[in-house]
Write a structure and sequence with these properties.
Arc Repressor Mutant, subunit A, Rossmann fold, 17 strands, seven-stranded parallel beta sheet, 622 residues, six-stranded parallel beta sheet, alpha/beta, 4 domains
Amino acid sequence: MNSNQSYQSNHPLADKYVTLKKHFGYEDFREGQEELIDCILDGRDVLGIMPTGAGKSICYQVPALMLDGITVVISPLISLMKDQVTSLNQSGVHAAYINSSLTENQINKAFDNAENGVYKIIYIAPERLDTPRFLHFVENADISLVAVDEAHCVSQWGQDFRPGYLSIAPFVEKLQKRPVLCAFTATATKEVKEDILCILGLCDPYTRITGFDRKNLYFAVKHVKDKRTETLRYVREHEGQCGIIYCATRGSVEEVYEMLCSEGIAAARYHAGMGSTERTQNQEDFIYDIKTVMVATNAFGMGIDKSNVRYVLHYNMPQSMENYYQEAGRAGRDGENAECMLFYAPKDVVTNKFLIENKESKKELTDEETASIRERDIKRLRDMTYYCTTKDCLRNYILRYFGEKVHGECGNCSNCLTEYEQHDITEIARKIVNAVYELHQRFGINIVIGVLRGSRAARILENHFDELKTYGSLTQYAESTLRQVIDTLIWENILYQTEDDYPVLRIGSDYTRLKDEETHIYMKSEIRHAKENTEKSSGKQLVRRGELSTEQHQYFEKLRVLRTEIARKEHVPPYIVFSDKTLIDMCIRMPQTKEEMLKVNGVGDNKLQRYGADFLKILRGE
């Protein structure tokens, strides 16, 4: 099973294109969507691994509207369900969700409506699949499709393992007629992908991996000492734009939030230590564009489909590349340019290691399973640390991490846009490897560096390491330089670190390269007079609004005001009415009739009927 499997479709093309335009306002499918939809319509299970913003929901929503029966969407979070259902209802699709945010009366009413054929799509949490009320409903319902959103939650290898997802396969087996089963996720390593296929019980699935790259996102890592000052400067540079600032701890959230508020910035905060009422209100203030900046822990964001987030700033380094890419991916969901900035400091590693070691283990897991997960978490933290310290292309690092082949530098990350000089570190590398060998591959980085720099530390002298041949052989180099060299050698597989609580340096599989006199190992270091464009990627240049003429931009602002007024009247987020991308397309096309308005990207029949006249008035200058 791979991303290049062939598929056959017996369904007329017109039907799916009509459905796509009528309900969602799009003329064409994005990469991967059409073949996944065709396979579902032909009764074949599918697995779609597509980056955030690639339109995964369309892949099951279009078939749901074309198939005769009901589609059940299994989703992990209340906010995710609410957002999807609100968006569907705005598009003229009858949908409902069933979760703990509803009263028993509301749940019963939703089931009554479902049994009477009111809904085509029902969202439900995995923990509710085996409840008596739901099982009674599905006994008499025609379930044609079961869609598993955020499918990585089924895997203990994943960063968001959720035990309730293990009940999905048994639930499908209980159904009198097996529906088509489809699964979707944005982040899946090889192990997670294999778990999804196996644990969910997908039958001969068509697997489509569209790639993990988000070309509209600019990635940057900045090593900073004063994060507060840098954060304030960054937010001011992005004044008027929506952004999320992620912090590792609640204390950091409070600190950054109070600083921004004291500077007159419209900020909100979100973390698990707050009351649910305040969290909900703050989330809505951000979604409704009342507050432009959200300062939060990783408790915020999953399932938030806010399309006009122009930047995601990580105040602290996340614990894993999976977490980072998922959180950073909340920027630029509308396809417009956006920034993913990470402020790095070495103490972030210490903080995250403490959080991992003190993370409460799940009751469902054995001690052995808990230890295994913690070991993998530590490895993920190391991979994340390498991302923050590498001088190579950041986008390529991310793509390689998720198993994707890369070709050439991206030209759209801070490393690609910074001038570096290369240093030949071959001889230094040989001495480091020799030191690891002399230490019998039993000690960590600190001891290895201590030996090489001729340290007189008690542990080195007590173990007679001062008698080794490599002792003091690299005294001319600073500790920080030797750490950078060791990081490079780990990246080159010349060395590796064990996964123990106290990692040990060992010789890697590619160390034999150093035996070849023709081999040279290089390390990059930044030239301080970096190119100007490394600091110029932010601000208004990020948004395609910059392509609008002065007159078009004036129309855009008028349309945005109208959108806000409609959103407040209907109690929905502004982007649910129309996204920024759709408003920009209106300003470029300047439609004057309903027929012309239908050609705008994101305008379907239902939204044209609901909002078309009001937006046309502005575009006509009435």
